[in-house]
Amino acid sequence: MAGGVYESATFNGGFTRAFNRMLTSYSQPANTIINFQIAIADSINGSCTGVTYNFVGPDGTANTYFTTDSPIPFNDDGTGFENPSQCMRYRAYLSTTDYNTTPVFEDIIINYSP
What we know:
mainly beta; 6-stranded antiparallel beta sheet; 6 strands; 0% helix
């Protein structure tokens, strides 16, 4: 199996906001896999520079992946993944067992509210 990971640039929401839902657009031919995780973190003195990101799936753990459009879990315990918060990144995990075809990540929309 061959694969790769795309990690987004940081989105700085400017202030704490709730990230509600992730909507994805992709092509997944036979023998390919595409999954997603999201990381949301508290800023450091109002900045996303130097923030540690913990990527999670729909159950709020690093052990799961989003495979369909889904709500983003909420967690405001002050450590690790935090939602609502200010800083956000996502990852797309792409893999194939057929070297003649690959999944194609096209677009992502992340809905948030103040």
